[in-house]
Amino acid sequence: MYDVVVVGAGPAGSMAAKTAAEKGLEVLLIEKRQEIGTPVRCAEGISKTSIERFFEVDKRWIAAEVIGAKIYSPDMTEVVMSEEMAGNEVGYVLERKIFDRQIARLAAKAGAEVRVKTAFEKFERVGDKLKVQMRCIGEKIEVETKILIGADGVESKLGRMAGIIRTLKLDEIESCAQYLMSGLDIDPNYTYFYLGRDIAPGGYAWVFPKGENSANVGIGVLPKMAEKSAKEYLDRFIEKIGMKGKIVEFVAGAVPVYGEIETAVADHLMLAGDAAYHSDPITGGGIANALAAGYYAGLVAYEAVKNNDFSAEFLKRYDKLWKEDFGKKLRRNKKLQEKFLKMDDETLNKLAKSISGKNLKEMSVQAIVKELLKAHPRLLWDLKDLFI
Ligand SMILES: Cc1cc2nc3c(=O)[nH]c(=O)nc-3n(C[C@H](O)[C@H](O)[C@H](O)COP(=O)(O)OP(=O)(O)OC[C@H]3O[C@@H](n4cnc5c(N)ncnc54)[C@H](O)[C@@H]3O)c2cc1C
Predict the structure, then answer these.
(1) Whose CA is nearest to atom 38 of ligand 1?
(2) Are residues 295 and 377 in the same domain?
């Protein structure tokens, strides 16, 4: 019998387990893979503040530190943004193999029981608790818990079983492919983003440096707009920009770009991170929100145990916390994404040209949109209330 069972040892799950265990709860954290943190399905970019609000940074987690982002429109017009402005995905490029493992270790240090190679299968309500069935190396295990936290990623089985989320449609998810490449000739001080329907329909391509001439080179495309697989677009992109280097790893994955869900709770249940579609609809970045959501889920689990109230009504205080933290940004960026999807390559070139060369270090995101609005009022007018 546990107070909390957490499914999935990504950033959201380990953070939830760590927080709940630090509050003195009996916590079980399960992970279906045999190793936490691998394979890495992530470009590993995150802002410094998103990490530093929760942890003292350990140099072992950091593969590279960047000072800004360079964004390229389809005709390669360059827009340079400083780190403070470039959003949740720029500042550090992590070594997630180490980072994810370390948060799980901190959860264990705080008293959580951690089980790898243990997959959640189903749950049922029995009286005022849940019976949770899981499978560990062929063996069926059943435990009881007061609270179940689903942090099982983009295809959350738990979230769908609970009826909180449904399978995503082809325009609500980005399909991604990424190589880790070495032997590259790039400036390691920046992350690079390449836009355009031709390069990445409904998404973008990225190059995130990882030190020693290596980088995560990847692409995300919206399946509804794409005619080929993400990997084919990625190969084409690498050829187009003439990138020379050796491929040392390949991963494919998906990111929800849904926007804000109404609720991430049900009786006895909370969803956090990608399982609750907490990733950003414009950038696809989700580590920062996963950490924050996991933290809030752990806190609310503690309050629920203290009050002996596991109803959805009580757990809605978790919704309030994550929505106050990043809900507005999810809503705003969903609107921006919808606008972005309608833009052809010519429009993107026009927008980039109007701000290329400006000193964006001294401008806020609002100021940039204001600047773009001045140059293209008709194009962006419906966004004015969201950004100004
Ligand atoms: C190619 C790519 C590039 C990306 N780049 C970035 C980036 O640069 N910056 C950024 O911020 N975000 C990025 N993201 C998104 C980011 O990786 C996710 O938002 C983040 O990992 C979400 O964390 P999470 O804890 O919610 O889920 P995950 O990290 O997906 O963790 C979920 C865990 O649950 C486990 N699990 C699943 N089902 C079960 C089960 N039944 N039983 C037990 N365990 C289970 C999984 O094995 C996994 O370990 C990228 C994603 C992709 C695909």
Answers:
(1) 152
(2) no
